[in-house]
């Protein structure tokens, strides 16, 4: 696979997973640096939920329908950050704008206390 890029949105297959971990195929945004993406064979991702069961806040970032290839309004779950092998990245859906990535970065700072 060609190196993935930060801000790209992919369908990811996280299974097998357990407990409260994200399960089933879903969209995820690449949050790792392009240097890591090009050299490690891994990508660090945050899953995206298409349901609006969670409201946008500091760690749940809203994505409007059409952004990053989404077909509905969505939420990026910054508290579910995860490293995945590039083989789990099934299909590229799109890219997120720099403004949204900045909000995701801030959400990750809240979660990781950076």
Largest sheet: 7 strands, antiparallel
Unreliable stretches covering 5 or more consecutive residues: none
CATH architecture, by name, is Roll
User: How would you state the average pLDDT, rounded?
Assistant: 89
Strand content: 25-35%
Output the helix-strand order.
EEHEEEEEH
Please, how many helices? Answer: 2
SSE inventory with pairings:
Layout: E1 8-12, E2 26-30, H1 34-40, E3 42-49, E4 60-63, E5 74-77, E6 82-85, E7 89-95, H2 98-112
Antiparallel strand pairs: 1-2, 1-7, 2-3, 3-5, 3-6, 4-5
What does this structure look like?
This protein is an alpha+beta fold and 114 residues long. Helix content is 19%, strand content 32%. It is globular. It has a single domain, classed as Roll (SH3 type barrels).
Brief overview, please?
The chain has 114 residues and is of the alpha+beta class.
Characteristic terms for this protein:
7-stranded antiparallel beta sheet, 114 residues, alpha+beta, globular, 2 helices, SH3 type barrels
């Amino acid at each position: 696979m060609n190196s993935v890029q930060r801000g790209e949105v992919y369908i990811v297959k996280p299974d097998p997973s357990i407990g409260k971990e994200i399960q089933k195929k879903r969209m995820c945004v690449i949050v790792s640096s392009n240097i890591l993406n090009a050299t490690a064979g891994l990508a660090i991702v945050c899953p995206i939920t298409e349901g609006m069961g969670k409201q946008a806040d500091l760690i749940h970032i809203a994505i409007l329908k059409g952004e990053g290839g989404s077909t509905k309004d969505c939420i990026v779950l910054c508290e579910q950050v995860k490293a995945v092998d590039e083989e789990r990245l099934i299909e590229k859906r799109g890219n997120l704008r720099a403004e949204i990535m900045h909000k995701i970065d801030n959400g990750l700072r809240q979660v990781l206390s950076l």
